DNA sequence: AAGTAGCGGATATGGCGCAGTTCCATCGTT
DNA sequence: AACGATGGAACTGCGCCATATCCGCTACTT
């Protein structure tokens, strides 16, 4: 028995007449009659009573109909499911990001845009620090991550720098320097520098320290902030100053002022890193769209 | 797409290897490869990754598998359902019977035997008097009935007499005649005769009245019993006597004695009547087995 | 009542396309 | 170099469909 037989059977069952069923299917009445006869021979019982005005289902035909009626739709559904999967319209991807990456407007936009374009793909988001994200890629717990570093080591892992943003100073709002729109880094040579631990974000850490050194002074290490939000809070508490990527200025807090840097401005890169071995179609789509969104 | 494609796909998915799958199916590896290729072309996406040691499902292949995996079983189930229906192993029949017919041991045996042989057939049983049963056949509310009459009028209704049973006397156990094993009907010429109304069972009524007349007396009509059980109760109350088919002796009651009739014994026929137009296979089986059971 | 037309299913025949066989090439692994 | 696995090419036989026609039944007309 083939799906062809089932399609022919269903057509006759619906029309109650071989001639009309044949016309609907697009073949002649004699081959349709023969195909139904072949099916009845294979099953071993008649599916139709032939009557002068057409054909009526037998009890066997009724029982058969009840089971095979869904077949054409199921077949179509199988094809559609395969096509959607082949286009990456279903599946799942696990995406990580650092806190500061999330403040880049393009990152939430990429999430929003991808979700809208591929509603059938289950996208899981996870915030973590850079070290954790890299470990997650290596351990295959994450498929792609947004982070602020411009190189990554690891087999089967690719990284693309997708944007660069200038850093800005974060000062207590009562600080004398905060009265001006631009502040030279060297003015803060006597202030404590607040940073997250190097181990959680080495690239950012090194860039900030280098920027201070390039301005002619060795930074005085201040309070260690466990995470980015803490940096802002400590500055608000007048424990010192810091440097953050410009999009962080969205994080407003009482007692905190953001100021552009006078002179050479350190740059923070935003990168997309992802697993490139056995990449799923959904992930490939995600990466393509992310890179495309950052090309102009 | 045909079931053949699905069967071939499932074989490769299970074996992970075209060569072994082909061997399992019973065709060569090249035509299997071509058939899968045709399927992939029709769907428009690859279902397998070809790798050096065989083939692995793609995401599209996995999605396709999830939908089509049940197809072979469903196809088999459809064939089986049609075959069972064709053999009358499923369906429903509605059978009626009179109270006295139910006392014939063969009637419950037919019910028991049919239920065991065709567990998939839903058999509904209904007790009613003869007139109601005949009306039920005519109205197509019943498919077959056991009743005590030897003719029936009605288009599309057939009747077979399946057994004959002698009638016996039902007497109050204190009655002088009850002291003997055999009693002549004429001994009861002065006693009241208890019967069910003629309208509910004309054949039985007429036979009993004829038997009395053949014994030389006109019966004195006694209490009218609404149903058969009432007849026994009235006799126990010493309101008179009656005649019933011999199997009724199973209905024992205090104050009641059954006695064989001396002389000519009236006979009660048990018949099966059924609808014969558009007879279902299940009903045909029921009738066949009932007639076969009563042939020896 | 008989004859005819129309409708519908089934049989017979022929042809084309498809599925399977056979042989062999290519690639990757051992 | 040998082996295992997939896929291409040539060939053959079978199956599905088209076409012609027959048969049975019903309805209509004479």
Automatic annotation (TrEMBL), chains A, B:
For this protein, the record's Gene3D superfamilies field holds: Periplasmic binding protein-like II (3.40.190.10), Winged helix-like DNA-binding domain superfamily/Winged helix DNA-binding domain (1.10.10.10)
Origin: domain of life: Bacteria
- Keyword terms, alphabetized: DNA-binding, Transcription, Transcription regulation
Q: Which GO terms describe its cellular component?
A: protein-DNA complex
Where is each HTH lysR-type domain found?
A: 1-58
One Pfam match, given by its short name, reads LysR_substrate
Q: Which residues form a coiled coil?
A: none
> What CDD domains does the record point to?
PBP2_BudR (cd08451)
GO MF, one annotated term: DNA binding
Q: Which PANTHER family does the entry mention?
A: SMALL NEUTRAL PROTEASE REGULATORY PROTEIN, TRANSCRIPTIONAL DUAL REGULATOR HCAR-RELATED
Which family, according to the similarity comment?
Answer: Belongs to the LysR transcriptional regulatory family.
Q: What is this protein called?
A: LysR family transcriptional regulator
Please report the organism this UniProt entry assigns to the protein.
Thalassospira profundimaris
């Amino acid at each position: 028995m083939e799906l062809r037989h089932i399609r022919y059977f269903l057509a006759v069952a619906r029309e109650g007449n071989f001639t009309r069923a044949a016309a609907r299917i697009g073949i002649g009445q004699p081959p349709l009659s023969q195909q139904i006869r072949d099916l009845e021979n294979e099953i071993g019982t008649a599916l139709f009573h032939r009557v002068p005005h057409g054909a009526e289902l037998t009890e066997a035909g009724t029982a058969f109909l009840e089971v095979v009626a869904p077949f054409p739709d199921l077949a179509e559904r199988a094809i559609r499911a395969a096509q959607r999967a082949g286009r990456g319209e279903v599946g799942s991807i696990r995406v990580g990001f650092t806190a500061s990456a999330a403040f880049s407007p393009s990152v939430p936009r990429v999430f929003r845009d991808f979700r809208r374009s591929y509603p059938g793909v289950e996208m899981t988001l996870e915030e973590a620090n850079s070290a954790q994200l890299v470990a997650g890629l290596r351990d295959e717990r994450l498929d792609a991550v947004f982070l602020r570093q411009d190189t990554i080591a690891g087999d089967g892992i690719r990284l693309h720098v997708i944007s660069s943003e200038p850093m800005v100073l974060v000062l207590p709002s009562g600080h004398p320097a905060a009265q001006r729109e631009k502040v030279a880094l060297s003015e803060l040579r006597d202030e404590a520098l607040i940073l997250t631990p190097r181990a959680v974000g080495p690239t950012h850490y090194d860039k900030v320290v280098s920027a201070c050194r390039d301005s002619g002074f060795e930074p005085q290490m201040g309070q260690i902030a466990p995470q980015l939000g803490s940096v802002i809070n400590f500055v608000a508490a007048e424990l010192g100053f810091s440097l953050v990527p410009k999009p962080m200025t969205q994080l407003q807090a009482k007692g905190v002022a953001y100021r552009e840097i006078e002179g050479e401005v350190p740059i923070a890169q935003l990168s997309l890193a992802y697993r490139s071995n056995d990449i799923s179609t959904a992930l490939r789509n995600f990466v393509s769209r992310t890179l495309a969104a950052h090309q102009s």
